[in-house]
Amino acid sequence: MYYPPLGTMALALVLLQLCLLIAAEGSLSLFDRITQLPGQPPVMFQQYSGYVTVDEKKQRALFYYFAEAQVDCASKPLVLWLNGGPGCSSLGVGAFSENGPFRPSGQVLVKNQYSWNREANMLYLESPIGVGFSYSSNAAAYETVNDRITGMSQPSFETFFLFNCHYIPQLADLILQFNKKEKLFNLKGIALGNPVLEFAMDFNSRAEFFWSHGLISDTTYTMFTSACNYSRYVSEYYKGSVSPVCSRVMGQVSRETSRFVDKYDVTLDVCISSVLSQSKILNPQQVADNVDVCVEDETVNYLNRKDVQNALHARLVGVHQWAVCSNILDYELLDLEIPTITIVGRLVKAGIPVLVYSGDQDSVIPLTGSRTLVHRLAQELGLKTTVPYRVWFEGQQVGGWTQVYGNILSFATIRGASHEAPFSQPERSLVLFKAFLQGQPLPEAF
């Protein structure tokens, strides 16, 4: 059984406080309402952003951005979106690069016609402290941060969904523990996008993905699956002791795959400026048919403008500029080795619908590992297949493939999508999002 530390409990209570404020709305409007973001086109929905205090004495606070549903917000569910990384911003990545209402474009913002606030009230939280605009006046707060601390920073409207990252299962599990004492959260489901569910299975799927997409040779594939697999390399790397054999294998893999291929979407062109500055994550996006692979650069520039920070009621504490992923956190990276698939199983047994979805062009956490793990979990839980593996449609095109077990555990791919699926396939991602919120099967015809 997973028992969260007291700090985790406190963070969950902070999130409850934030959700109650959102539900009441009056408390938010006095201080946190955004009049208008610089360069923003006119919209009919309200936006809020600001801080929720985690520890007043130590001056620790989490930054949030909240976009009301575009239509009839009172009847729409609340969705909490968290990006992983670990230590990457849900504001800059999720809201401004994936599924939020706007995209930065030069000095202005443009509307995202596939924004998820078409279907839900969207809450983006920069978590843990030390990510983005979230801060502590005590630098010690950035030391030894782990998934248990990060995962418990979260939400209730009438209905409430959790979306996206590796530590969502821990948060959902804690919410269920809270609800045993008092029904504080009406949790309706969780969805995990390209998540690490089980370290070895997910990471070692990379070799086959590279080979099947022509990124590595037959010889290198053999070395990558026998002499040193990827999970062994990552574990050695995080422990600071990479063996000579793993160093040789990974050197060969890196030479063949090339740094000019985006590992988060092997079919997507790269932003050269990001590659040359050794950016670790590419989170491109735009509203039109073509993908703006340099949107990360534009987001960084936009969120570091003083007029933008003033409009967001944000401030920089202990850092000189806002960054996509935190470079001040001492994150327990080996937490990646802690499996979350068992927690997912507990959630399913508790009656919480779970969707695992994969952008099928992501080589970092490939779909093959996720699909295998979900199928294995369904077998362990004794769940029958209720929707056999089949295609689903967006418009008149195949949007991806899906399989459902016991009408409660689902797997889906998003065709042509990257690790950050809403960035590269926004319309298909919105179709999947809407179907999950409504508890409906993905379209099987057009």
Automatic annotation (TrEMBL):
Gene3D superfamilies referenced in this protein's UniProt entry, alphabetically: 3.40.50.11320, 6.10.250.940, alpha/beta hydrolase
Signal peptide bounds: 1-26
Pfam families tied to this protein: Peptidase_S10
Cell compartment(s), UniProt: Secreted
GO CC aspect terms: extracellular region; vacuole
InterPro entries reported for this sequence: AB_hydrolase_fold, Peptidase_S10, Ser_caboxypep_his_AS
GO MF, one example: serine-type carboxypeptidase activity
Superkingdom per UniProt: Eukaryota
One of the GO BP terms on file: proteolysis
Keywords: Carboxypeptidase, Disulfide bond, Glycoprotein, Hydrolase, Protease, Secreted, Signal
Cited PROSITE patterns: CARBOXYPEPT_SER_HIS (PS00560)
SUPFAM superfamilies associated with the record: alpha/beta-Hydrolases
Family: Belongs to the peptidase S10 family.
Biological function: Probable carboxypeptidase.
Protein's UniProt name: Serine carboxypeptidase-like 45
Lineage: Eukaryota, Viridiplantae, Streptophyta, Embryophyta, Tracheophyta
Name of the coding gene: SCPL45_2
